[in-house]
Design a protein that fits this description.
The structure holds two protein chains of two kinds. Chain A is 57% helix and 0% strand. Chain A is mostly helical. Chain A has one domain. Chain B contains 13 helices and no strands. Chain B starts with a helix and ends in a 10-residue tail after the last helix.
């Protein structure tokens, strides 16, 4: 159970709805990651999360498989439930 | 993954070993990191080491946000993952979800000078040579700019609270694996406790600690901003030490 309220995509209006649309364009799918939605109380913070994620995992030539290895290793050592 | 992280994977490549070694050091003793810790990876991967540094820092941010705010898993709750067959089905379902995404690499279009100018505008002062270690990967500078914008333009927290969170995170940063995994007295103040747990073992955040923040006057947006402040201070703790940047670029003294 999430500790704070969020604005799901279906209920989003205005700038928040625009940011959900930006997420669709960035990821190439209609999926909304829960860790992005948790920022939805403030559209600018959700936009920042999406761009940070893109810079880390998409932008540049380093192989995706190595980036995923780091992400998985960090999550494992941190015992992250997500 | 488990054999790699444990250091017993016999078929790991030198690059995979260097990546996991760095991840482990950044988890066990981030307070002791220096640019020398990035060198083994740089010797193998060249400037891609900066791409990997950004991923490492980004996931110290993302994992903390997820644990501090109890973000629900995308596919399977943790309890069900303990059943091997169910876990495998979950991995298969996750792969189906990922297949729907565009995972192709995208060019880093930013220039070093433009990225640095944006940071200088945000901070209102020239930075001289401070960002030179990141010259090969302007996207890392763009990422730092996003963190600064969050701190200075978006957060509902006042500067004194942000500075307090930064000091608490820096003081709580693990200096040993025991610091990152053991059991320690938590600060009684709800904000200090949130930052302390969020720095050492964010997965131990409890509904009671969130309730204490609410009693102290924080609403949903305030709790989100506290989580962002803790998570950003943690990713910055690793970024400035490994890249050799001035801590004061982000930390409010």
């Amino acid at each position: 159970m999430r500790h704070i309220a969020t604005v799901p995509r279906a209920q989003a209006t205005g700038e928040t709805a625009e940011v959900y649309a930006e997420l669709r364009r960035m990821s190439g799918s209609g999926l909304v990651a829960q860790v992005v939605q948790v920022f939805s109380l403030r559209a600018s913070s959700m936009r920042r999360m999406i761009r940070s994620w893109e810079l880390a995992m998409w932008v540049g030539g380093a192989p995706r498989v190595n980036r995923e290895l780091i992400a998985a290793a960090v999550a494992r050592l941190e015992h992250c439930h997500y | 993954m488990a054999p790699l992280v444990s250091g017993v994977a016999g078929d790991a490549t030198p690059l995979e070993r260097a990546l996991v070694d760095l991840v482990r050091r950044a988890h066990d003793a981030p307070a002791l990191l220096t640019p020398a810790d990035l060198e083994p990876l740089h010797a193998i991967a060249g400037d891609d080491a900066l791409d990997y540094l950004l991923v490492l820092c980004a996931f110290h941010f993302i994992t903390r946000i997820a644990d501090l705010l109890a973000v629900p898993p995308e596919v399977l709750p943790p309890a069900l993952r303990r059943v091997e067959m169910v876990r495998r089905i979950g991995v298969w379902m996750t792969s189906l979800l990922l297949r729907r995404m565009d995972l192709a690499s995208r060019p880093d279009r930013a220039s070093f000078d433009d990225a640095r100018a944006r940071i200088e505008a945000l901070l209102g002062r020239p930075l001289g040579q401070a960002l030179e270690p990141l010259r090969a990967r302007p996207k890392v500078i763009e990422s730092i700019g996003l963190v600064l914008e969050e701190r200075d333009r978006a957060s509902s927290l006042d500067r004194a609270t942000l500075a307090h969170v930064h000091r608490t995170v820096e003081a709580a940063l693990p200096r040993s694996a025991e610091d990152a995994t053991g059991f320690h007295a938590r600060p009684a103040d709800p904000v200090d406790g949130f930052a302390f747990v969020g720095t050492r073992y964010a997965q131990r955040t409890t509904p009671e600690s969130i309730a204490a923040l609410r009693r102290a006057g924080y609403d949903d947006l305030g709790i989100l901003d506290l989580a962002i402040a803790v998570a950003d201070a943690n990713q910055w703790a690793r970024m400035f030490r490994l890249a050799g940047l001035p801590p004061s670029l982000f930390l409010l003294a």
